[in-house]
Design a protein that fits this description.
With about 600 residues, this protein is of the alpha/beta class. It contains 16 helices and 32 strands. Strands 1, 2, 5, 6, 7, 8, 9, 10, 11 and 12 form a 10-stranded mixed β-sheet that branches. Strands 13, 14, 15, 16, 17, 18, 26, 27 and 30 form a 9-stranded mixed β-sheet that branches. Strands 3-4-20-25-19 form a 5-stranded mixed β-sheet, covered by helices on one side. The longest helix is centred in the middle third of the chain and has 17 residues.
Length: about 600
């Protein structure tokens, strides 16, 4: 090999060196660049990305440190039907994952990767998932030919030398291989090899397909490792609520993609809740493990937010808006002539004229959206005005409540509490939600998305439920489990609940339930608040009747829901824990 090495090769770890060497022979790049995560490196790579027109420098007066990127029009979301779990036995991947035999998939992919980086630079991107020194933190290294991936990984993870420091001479790190190849969708594979702690991603340059620390490592491979090592890797936000008395309570919540995690994690409580404060620990992923005191502890493995842009404004999510004013990478939003960004649902009037996410001229008269519905920001978490200091705590935070929630225009009440741990797992396991633009395919179709992990569980979903059941034994103080639905609609198609900051009202009832301070009424689904138990003061027009509407449990809707739940259970019949079948019987009999 006659590859030129740029940057300092800054590790002497033999396993790393050998592996990079081996893949350099496959990819055959013109150069190899070892990233160190420094500020100087960021500056140099950004300048190069601008010169190569991969990034557009935005108006630096308005948006200091911000850059703009457009991805290929066929490459704007996660692609579930090209995502694979490659295990020796198909049973280990289970019926909800696409499966391939590892050696066959490797043969295909090594074929595609052969010489794929000719004339390009291979970047070696070491990164740490989780606070340095945390027993839960893990190291990954991503090889990529995308400068956009390098710069995004620098925002989303603790990237650079810090990862080699945590790794030492160990060979226990996630090996990620990514090449943009030709961006041809037919060459696109997001392949996971959990038994080798390896990921190969080809022919994409978009978010969850290529920022391998995120969904690929932290969730798909992570969930596999978590089951072996006795912890949980979940598609959950983590937030802390501080009461006016200074009491802090931590909550984790699993909502499917584009169903409100970032918004909930950064929520600003309404005026009625003076003195209350919500702090963000994480907005997308939680790694959780029972601690020696019998509580469940959670860390956020990430260091940035890759959030949905459309709909972000000073009313819906002022903290996100503040977060993305600097040092942010914007992807697939609209670009204004003065190099500002715009999106549907931004404050103020739309620009008279701009360029849409495809680079076409756009005016307010245009029929199509200016920003892609799955346009995203990548912003460092340190920008968040309500970042919890605990986001850097190696111990993590003790979780008092776990909340599951889907996007449902009917059937599901605003909030209810599970009767107990197993009943809560049943509620999470049978969760349904309407599909969103976060994944390629039809939007608005209801599907089962167990614990918001359908696209992210790296092993058999039945075994995953069993793992959740068994981890209960390690906890003296398990979190209480709840279900919420911010998206129920009335007959005119309007949301029945104002959502966003007003979700604090639901959160307060949840906290009070955890601390044994609030009552609830028993229903076939679980415990629910009425208007005397949930604080509705200051919420315009929110009469007890209106609350009853958003909380209604309708018999005909639940007959249908039970059938829909059955479809998933039938698919999983081979490995479904009997406890969940029993829970189903109990629920049916309560109706
Ligand atoms: P991923 O990053 O894809 O995992 O998504 P997420 O769960 O973090 O979703 P996010 O918070 O970005 O919300 C996505 C969409 O849901 C946006 O269009 C929001 O405007 C909308 N949304 C969030 N919270 C609420 C709410 O309380 N009520 C209503 N009606 N919409 C909401
Ligand atoms: C999701 O789809 O759940 C996301 C965005 O958080 S991505 O990183 O693209 O998966
Ligand atoms: Mn997500």
């Amino acid at each position: 090999m006659t590859n030129k090495t740029l940057g300092q090769c800054n590790t002497s770890n033999r396993a790393v060196l050998n592996w990079v060497d081996q893949w350099t022979k496959v990819f055959q790049p013109e150069k190899v660049y070892w990233c160190d995560g420094s500020a100087a490196e960021k500056e140099a790579l950004t300048a190069e990305a601008v010169a190569r027109e991969i990034l557009v420098e935005l108006n630096q007066q308005k948006l200091p440190g911000c850059y703009y990127h457009r991805s290929h029009p066929s490459d704007v979301a996660r692609i579930e039907d090209r995502t694979f779990i490659c295990t020796e036995a198909q049973e280990d991947a289970g019926p909800t994952n696409n499966w391939r035999l590892p050696r066959e998939m490797r043969r295909t992919l090594i074929g595609l990767c052969q010489g794929a980086m000719a004339g390009r630079t291979l970047y070696v991107v070491p990164y740490l998932m989780g606070p340095p020194g945390s027993a839960l933190a893990k190291v990954g290294i991503e090889l990529t030919d995308s400068i956009y991936v390098v710069l995004s990984m620098r925002v989303m993870t603790r990237m650079g030398q810090i990862a080699y420091e945590q790794l030492g001479n160990d060979d226990d790190f996630n090996r990620g291989m990514h090449t943009m190849l030709d961006l041809n969708p037919e060459h696109r594979y997001i392949a996971h090899f959990p038994q080798r702690n390896e990921i190969i991603s080809t022919s994409s340059n978009y978010g969850g397909n290529v920022l391998l620390g995120k969904k690929c490592f932290a969730l798909r491979i992570g969930s596999w490792l978590a089951r072996q090592e006795g912890w949980l890797a979940e598609h959950m936000l983590i937030l802390g609520v501080e009461s006016p008395q200074g009491e802090k309570t931590y909550v984790a919540a699993a909502f499917p993609s584009a169903c409100g995690k970032t918004n909930f994690a950064m929520m600003v409580p309404p005026a009625r809740f003076r003195g209350w404060k919500v702090w963000t620990v994480g907005d997308d992923i939680a790694w959780m493990k029972p601690g020696p005191d019998g509580q469940l502890y959670a860390i956020n493995p990430e260091a940035g937010y890759f959030g949905v842009v459309p709909g972000t404004n000073s009313k819906s999510n002022p903290n996100a808006l503040a977060t993305i004013q600097r040092d942010t990478l914007y992807t697939n939003v609209a670009l204004t002539p003065d190099l500002d960004v715009w999106w549907e649902g931004k404050d103020g009037d739309p620009p008279k004229e701009c360029f849409d996410w495809l680079g076409r001229k756009w005016t307010p008269e245009s029929k199509e959206k200016a920003a892609h519905p799955n346009s995203r920001f990548a912003a460092p978490m340190v920008n968040n005005p309500v970042l919890a200091p605990e986001a850097n705590d190696p111990q993590g935070v003790p979780i008092s409540a776990i909340i599951f929630g889907g996007r449902r225009s009917d059937t599901m009440p605003l909030v209810f509490q599970a009767f107990n741990w197993i009943n809560g797992i049943y509620i999470g396991a049978t969760m349904g939600s309407e599909t969103t633009a976060a994944a390629a395919g039809a939007v608005g179709q209801i599907r089962r998305d167990p614990m918001a992990m359908l696209p992210f569980c790296g092993y058999n979903m039945g075994d995953y439920f069993r793992h959740w059941i068994s981890i209960r034994k390690a906890m003296k103080h398990p979190p209480r489990i709840f279900h919420v639905n911010w998206f129920r609609k009335d007959v005119d198609g309007k949301f029945l609940w104002p959502g966003f900051g007003e979700n604090m009202r639901v959160l307060q009832w949840i906290l009070d339930r955890c601390r044994g301070r609030a009552n609830g009424n028993e229903t076939p689904l679980g415990w629910v608040p009425d208007n005397t138990q949930m604080d509705l003061e200051g919420l315009d027009g929110y009469t007890p009747e209106r609350l009853a509407k958003v909380q209604a449990i309708k018999h005909d809707e639940w007959v249908r829901e039970l059938h829909l739940q059955d479809e998933l259970f039938m698919k999983l019949h081979g490995t479904l824990p009997k406890e969940l079948i029993f829970e189903r019987e109990l629920l049916a009999s309560r109706f």
